[in-house]
Amino acid sequence: MPERAIDFSKPIPLFPLGSCVLLPHTTVPLTIFEPRYRVMVEDALGSDRIISMGIYSSDSQPDDHSIRECVCVGYIAKYEMLAGGRYHILLQGICRAKIIEEVIHTPYRKVTVQPTTGDQIMEIDLQEERARIERLLHDSRLMGLSSIGAVNHWLSSEIPTDTLIDQTTLMTCSDNEIRYSMLRERDVYQRAAWLTEYLQKTRHLIEIAEKYGLPRSDDGYCLN
């Protein structure tokens, strides 16, 4: 669903979590069981299927429900209704956005948001960044990681570079603070630079593990 099809003039349902970050061009499976969020999904399915996914502030107190400024606007690509009114949904990230204000709404929260996609960059202008990333993805040491193998499984020349960056970030990095920083970063060049450095550091760790015979986890990633 293209960004231009989202009506940013009206409030969008907000689904906040404490430990899950959605990025554009990626999908996450979610189980919806709280009554208020079941209503949210029902309402979204009855309209445009749009939900914004946010994350609680890291310094929030147990009774504080503050949300970080940046969210990812997503589209319910698939859903399955379960017994008891619960849902399994597949939420597909569409675009980066920031919260402008929260509007009074029950039983779930709604916010008005503004897209933060940054400047439109032509694919030809990202050739060098993409070449560096693809060289690392095809590096013999990194290809031993299951996450890198999964990236290479669907990688093709037809996938836009910004999609490649977001997908690879989500699939290779489990740190939600880093994922959020990548959600907040508008500049695709900065996101490309971070991912390149991250893959280089990962390769270096694997090289050290091979040199000193350090143990590895099931996916081939070296353990400290």
UniProtKB/TrEMBL annotation:
GO terms for biological process: proteolysis. Its EC number is 3.4.21.53. The keyword Protease applies. The keyword DNA repair does not apply. Residues 12-203 form the Lon N-terminal domain. Keywords: Hydrolase, Protease. Coiled coil: none annotated. It is an enzyme of class 3 (hydrolase). GO terms for molecular function: serine-type endopeptidase activity. SMART domains: LON (SM00464). This is Lon protease. It comes from Poriferisphaera corsica.
